[in-house]
Design goal:
The complex is a heterodimer of chains A (399) and B (139). Chain A is α/β, with parallel strands linked by helices. Helices cover 33% and strands 16% of the residues of chain A. Chain A has 2 domains: 6-133 and 225-244, Peroxisomal Thiolase, Chain A, domain 1, CATH 3.40.47; 147-221 and 251-397, Peroxisomal Thiolase, Chain A, domain 1. Residues 1-16 of chain A have low confidence and may be disordered. Chain B is mainly β. Chain B has a 5-stranded antiparallel β-sheet with strand order 5-4-3-6-7. Chain B has a two-stranded antiparallel ribbon with strand order 1-2. The longest helix of chain B has 8 residues, at 13-20. Chain B is globular. The chains are: A alpha/beta (399), B mainly beta (139).
């Protein structure tokens, strides 16, 4: 396993310079299901927040920052400061934006606030039940030059995947191998929406009905409901807390353009995230081959192949053969989504991004369902809409 | 719910007016000459707000294509070939290529615009194979 990088030595030598090193000290995932008809988004958000605070060994009044969805009823829907009355104290940090409340983006903004001293202990997460929105999964607003053509999230990724296949010879079977591998992780994860539904072979994926070429049904993620949250604080504060702190060692974000209005073009976004990854690795003082486990966005099989390239695990165009070689299995060189990912564990709207952090933290604590033995360094990669954006963080075990 | 109907904006109204006349027009920056799509409040090349619509010949090639079997909602005849078209005169558009059998639409295929009325107000720029360039479809 990878050597612990210099940035985490604070835990052993108590270096006061690093007292404000941001660390994740609490995580919580609610139940995730195709449908939770007896629960609303507010109920799930409250559980996620309470659960993460309890997991951290904290009380609500210890939290001075809330980057959390507020769906209502109660408070002001969409206004993050609604959480002040739940936490029972005035807040020093909040966010009103759904995407700022989830995954690496939410984590990195909270970590930046903690590092800068704007807040000490921030909860990130929530729940928005996009599955009850009625329309196709996409931007959530009318898009004049996209909607009329039947463009939606699966088709946008498909347009990138098709061009990747054309340029590099990536095959439908390589895509299917990715889907089968990650789905099989979910098949044996009791928390996963698709628990017990497999196992799957690449042939099963290829035999499932076509959604949008090159994606078969089993190449695509499920859509369900659920919430998640995490708590970030300083290394100094974490010394008194029960959980092993997981350090936020590095991060990077990259935005090509707003989601969906224009189609994702392989020549523009095929390598999107490479800059974010280089920045994140440099900040953490590590390279891609030091990483023990990857928690990556998998709205479809292809997006995993693309990320193997931009994360520097192989060259441009080489992601297909690498993914199909067994490298992404739990026992492989570069394990991806041991929890079953969006393909089989859960996709619940924006909070699926937080679930990626939850899984990385559990892996680094040594408490994951499908544990990568001795995992010390994890990468969380979130993306979307083709992918027009990428948010990556590097997390490390500290003691 | 039926197939979504585009709602013209201050930026796009001339595009839809031209489409109804059977003309394809695209935004072109007066300051730096960049042609772009979709219309934006300012030029993506130089942020100038001085831009206007110019005609396009409406010919190009398929940059990428997906045959959509599961549409995002009702109102679509599936399967259809959703394609990204690189126009020869400078912009990239999302559209459908109607080649009869959607599986016949391939990357590199030469296409030309083919306007089809959708509502009283909206005429859509579909694309069809450009037989005039049939021998050049070997990208």
């Amino acid at each position: 396993m990878a050597a612990i990088p210099a940035a985490t030595r604070w835990a052993r030598d108590g270096d006061p310079v690093n007292d404000r090193q941001p660390v994740v000290v609490g995580v919580h995932a609610t139940e995730q299901a195709l449908s939770l008809p007896d629960r609303d988004a507010m109920d799930l958000a409250l559980e996620a927040v309470s659960g993460a605070i309890a997991d951290a060994g904290l009380t609500p009044a210890d939290i001075d920052g809330a980057q959390v969805d507020w769906p209502g009823p109660g408070g002001v829907p969409g206004e993050g400061s609604s959480w002040a009355r739940m936490l029972g104290r005035d807040l020093r940090w909040t966010s009103d934006s759904m995407l700022d409340n989830a995954g690496s983006r939410g984590l990195l903004k909270a970590a930046a606030a903690v590092r800068a001293g704007l807040a000490d202990t921030v909860v990130v997460g929530g729940c928005k039940l996009v599955s009850r929105g009625g329309g196709p999964v996409g931007a959530g607003v009318p898009l004049e030059f996209a909607d009329v053509w039947g463009s939606y999230v699966v088709a946008q990724f498909a347009l990138v995947a098709a061009r990747h296949m054309h340029e590099y010879g990536t095959t439908a079977r390589q895509l299917a191998e990715v889907a089968a591998t990650i789905r099989n992780n979910g098949t044996t994860n009791p928390e996963a929406m698709m628990y017990g539904r497999g196992p799957y072979t690449a042939d099963d994926v290829l035999a499932s009905r076509m959604v949008a070429t090159p994606f078969h049904l089993l190449d695509c993620c499920i859509v369900g409901e659920g919430g998640a949250a995490l708590v970030v604080t300083t290394a100094e504060r974490a010394r008194d807390l029960p959980q092993q702190p997981i350090a936020v060692l590095g991060g990077g974000m990259e935005y090509h353009q707003a989601a969906y209005a224009n189609p994702a073009l392989h020549r523009e976004v095929g390598q999107l995230g490479r800059d974010a990854a280089a920045r994140a690795y440099a900040m953490a003082g590590i390279g891609p081959h030091d990483v023990d486990v990857f928690s990556l966005y998998d709205p479809n099989s292809f997006e995993v192949i693309r990320q193997l390239e931009i994360l520097g695990l192989c060259g441009e165009g080489e992601g297909g053969p690498l993914a199909a070689s067994g490298a992404i299995a739990v026992g492989g060189k570069h394990p991806v989504n041991p929890d079953g990912g969006c393909l089989a564990y859960a996709w619940n709207g924006t909070q699926q991004m937080t679930l990626k952090v939850v899984e990385a933290v559990r892996q680094l604590r040594g408490s994951a369902v499908h544990q990568v033995e001795g995992a010390e360094l994890a990468v969380v990669g979130n993306a979307g809409s083709g992918a027009q954006h990428y948010e990556m963080s590097v997390l490390g075990r500290t003691r | 719910m039926s197939r979504p109907v585009p709602v013209p904006t201050l930026l796009s109204r001339p595009f839809w007016d031209a489409a109804r006349r059977g003309d394809l027009v695209v935004p072109r920056c007066t300051s730096c000459g960049l042609r772009f799509f979709v219309p934006e409040p300012a030029c993506p090349g130089c942020m100038s707000r001085e831009w206007g619509y110019v005609p396009s010949a409406g010919r190009g090639a398929v940059y990428s294509v997906t045959v959509v079997h599961r549409a995002p909602g009702p109102g679509f005849d599936t399967p259809f070939a959703l394609a990204v078209i690189d126009l020869d005169d400078g912009v990239t558009l999302l559209s459908h290529v109607d080649a009869g059998d959607p599986d016949d639409v391939v990357i590199g295929m030469r296409v030309r615009v083919d306007f089809r009325a959708f509502t009283d107000e909206i005429t859509l720029p579909y694309f069809v194979p450009d037989t005039r360039h049939e021998r050049l479809t070997t990208e």
